[in-house]
Amino acid sequence: MDQDAFLGRVVTDNAAAFAGLSVSLGARLGLYRAMTGRGPMTPAQLAAEAGTVERYAAEWLAAQVAGEYVLYDAATATYELPDEHAAVLADLTGGFTMLQSLYQTEDALVEAFRTGDGHGWEQHSADLFSGVADFFRPGYDAFLVQEWLPALQGVTEKLAGGGLVADVGCGYGYSTMLMAEAFPQARFRGFDFHAPSVEAARRTARERGLSGRVSFEVASAADFPGEGYDLVTYFDCLHDLGDPGAALRRTEKVLAADGSVMIVEPNTSGDPARSINPIGRSFAAVSVVLCLPAAIAQRGPVALGNHAGEDVMRAIAADAGLGSWRVAVETVTNRIYDVKR
Ligand SMILES: C[S@@+](CC[C@H](N)C(=O)[O-])C[C@H]1O[C@@H](n2cnc3c(N)ncnc32)[C@H](O)[C@@H]1O
User: Fold this and answer.
1) Which helix (H) or strand (E) is 215 found in, with range?
2) Fold entry, domain 3-91
3) Ligand 1 in contact with 280 (CB < 6 A)?
4) What's the confidence (pLDDT) of residue 117?
């Protein structure tokens, strides 16, 4: 890339970074939702629909037009959110919600870079936890029941007739609840060491009428309770643990005789050059400000970051007695590993 091209890249990135807050505001204030399916609107109509002040709505719309999220018709002075854009924005604003929280950690990260200390998961503000859950949820909605579980050997057959599942590092529990809705005969236990996330998961389970078959408990991955699990899952969290080996040793201990472990990890590579694309760049950028410091804060034997690579994970699993390792599915964003003893 020559200097002019690189200048263009930095200016574009700067614009996207500035625009991120307006996207988060659009999601949080329901501005995108208010424009969905409505055709051309004036700022006054949008403001009335979303319950905001017109002057702010007008300024926000100008920013949306500049980013080509919203179309502007000068002849009628109206703004339109195309249906195709609305469909994407309905699912993809979780990452923008995380920004406020991540930027708040900058001072702590400056210190951490100098001292080598971590920044714990629980030290982030609330937007981070709901943002992460919303960031991953569309992928789970689209693939978990339809493709990922069926790609594991013998798992869906077992769960259709009953079975016990542990979802470790479950966060807000969307993955747990999706599986529970698909397999009404089976029982599901979600575990996470972050109490506010567990509380949020319990609330959602009650709202969805799942409390009888799905429970959420505060527990560390290294000693989550129970035994005889037919399936233990780790959704986008194994690399966040300070001691993934301890978690997998516990998993091996509490797994039923022919039980399976499903490890869902970002589809990243240990080779930084393979991250030169928008998804790889997003994962790599989040790793250094969130995944790595959160793992370091746990003071375990490793801190992997989210792009340590498959070989590293596989070796940790083998050391824990989980020697059978297979890539079950690969998507643009995730790799799903089917792991057994
Ligand atoms: C990136 S989030 C993923 C959450 C959820 N699985 C999802 O896909 O939305 C990582 C999760 O791991 C949890 N976590 C991190 N370290 C943990 C530990 N040692 N024991 C249990 N949970 C842990 C965090 O609280 C957080 O909910």
Assistant:
1) strand 214-218
2) Arc Repressor Mutant, subunit A (1.10.10)
3) no
4) 97
To test ligand 1's pocket by mutation, which of 193, 236, 237 has the most ligand atoms within 8 angstroms of CB? 237
Query: Does residue 92 register a pLDDT over 90?
Result: no
Domain 96-340 has CATH 3.40.30.10: no
By the 10 Å C-beta count (0-12 exposed, 13-18 middle, 19+ buried), 109 is classed as: middle
216 lines ligand 1 (CB under 6 A): no
The per-residue pLDDT for range 176-200, each reduced to its tens digit, is: 999 999 999 999 999 999 999 999 9
Alpha-carbon span 57 to 13, nearest angstrom: 24
CATH 3.40.50.150 boundaries in the chain: 96-340
78 lines ligand 1 (CB under 6 A): no
Give the position of tokens 């780790």.
234
Using DSSP, state whether 267 is helix, strand or coil.
coil
**Residue 301: its pLDDT value, please?**
97
Residues facing residue 59 across a β-bridge: none
What does pTM read for this prediction?
0.95
Domain span(s) for CATH 1.10.10.10 in the chain: 3-91
- Distance, in Å, from the CA atom of 68 to the CA atom of 77, rounded to the nearest integer, reads 16
